[in-house]
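Q: What does the assembled structure look like for these inputs?
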Amino acid sequence: METRELRYVVAVAEERHFGRAAERLGIAQPPLSRAIAQVERRLGAELFVRTPRGVELTDAGAVLLVEGRAALDAVAAAERRTRRAAGVDGAPSLVLVSKAGASSEVVAKLLDAYAAEPGAVDVDVVLCGPAQQEPMLRDGRADVAILHQPFDDTAGFDLEVLVTDTAQVCVLPAGHPYAARKSLTVAEVAEIPGLPLPRWPRRDGSFPSGRGVEVRDHTQLLQMVALGRAVVVLPDSVRTDLHEGHATVPVVDAPTVTTVLAWPPHSRSLAVAGLVRTASRL
Amino acid sequence: METRELRYVVAVAEERHFGRAAERLGIAQPPLSRAIAQVERRLGAELFVRTPRGVELTDAGAVLLVEGRAALDAVAAAERRTRRAAGVDGAPSLVLVSKAGASSEVVAKLLDAYAAEPGAVDVDVVLCGPAQQEPMLRDGRADVAILHQPFDDTAGFDLEVLVTDTAQVCVLPAGHPYAARKSLTVAEVAEIPGLPLPRWPRRDGSFPSGRGVEVRDHTQLLQMVALGRAVVVLPDSVRTDLHEGHATVPVVDAPTVTTVLAWPPHSRSLAVAGLVRTASRL
DNA sequence: GCGACGTCATACCTGCCGGGTATCACCCCC
DNA sequence: GGGGGTGATACCCGGCAGGTATGACGTCGC
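A:
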């Protein structure tokens, strides 16, 4: 199957509509219909059930949507990494993706240590929202990522543990009544009156419904906390990033957070290997 | 990039020769040259250095070889799994791949337990040589595999531990002088006069050089041991598969072998999930 | 050192197929 | 029952993938 056909199938599966899919693909509707029909004929499987309102996915169509996305990511990754490996200069650089505003202490230490290594290459640090890291790693826009278990989906990546934060704190606006507490539980934090937990964007950029403010990165998050609009539980190590607008209270029953370095398992990049070796020595 | 182009690049990279690559692809050499040139132009990168004897890979070419194979596997997996999901009957089946002749006790127990579950689907068990399992899982010919850590490469798969074998034994031909020993070390096993460790095929089917006999699966292996042509260290649990031609001696310093159930991390298959749930309860 | 050979690149042609426009068949709903 | 919407079909056109013939350019052997 050609990637063009995969893109067509994924577009139709996502739009549930030939016309909109064609528009998104920048082609007319009839060629799209024909291409999908041809794919279905070759696979010997109906992918969509045509209704007067658009299309529904069959089981096979649902499978091809998931698998096709993964395959398209892999193709995009191949292209991007090749282009980068050929980079203008002979020094291929590495792209590390981290959450905007996440605790930078450990990462800075890692990058400093790596830069001191013989044969170290330039590392571009890219910051983005939490849900964007995994797709970036999958489609080759990034080579390594800083992820946090158990919050990020680390399935399918190789990992090296950087830090394990057993202690966690609740970050509150300075002067909030709860700031005087000696400790809190997760359940208590979730029920603080007038201070809901924030909402993070999903993979597609949309937000789940709820009362909390919408935040896209940790910088926004901490600002919202300082503004008295949100409360959040974070690893103890973020205390170094806080300022006078914040207060912290230990949370006694929070899960252990592990900060890990993650990379695609088939990566054979010497640069990634060097970074991992450095990380394993810290 | 189209999969056709990826196939071309991978073929040339593997053959190190335009003519042979073209033959393998079933096309003439000139269109292949043109297609590769076009890819290079679009990527803005030289993939191959042309020599009078064929071609060498550039760094970018090496990257695209590795990444391109992964991408082609993903595309093939998408196609295969879709075709299977659409299967003639409404009962999509699951393909489990295991080593030929590997200890079947645990697997049999797992499959029996799964078959008793409500909603269980048919499980096709496919046996193959050890090095073939990983590619089969990657390109969609299989949905789940039985792998053995630390010998198999489990990078990039999700895992569920089935058994942990702490005790391991050296399998010898019955009547061999060493069979009388009370215990052995790994180093001693490697040095048994006249009984080298066997050689397994690599991913591409070729064998590493050395003295040991060439074996492709556990059945052949145990036969070679019985014939006095090889010796091997295996988990204690294989004792159930041995017959009178074999003798076993405990190996005191062998690494722990873990038998795991492995599947592609993005798998959303209900059938795989059910099998994993069953495994986790054993 | 010069031809023979083998490499990959180039030139040119052809037929297929991907894409466009126009239109149809069908369903839903007012 | 007609209008607006869906996807399917018919037909045409241009680009490009593939083929053959040939060239440019090394290496090797005599």
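Strands of chain B lie at 48-51, 54-57, 94-99, 123-128, 144-149, 158-165, 168-173, 232-235, 246-251, 257-263.
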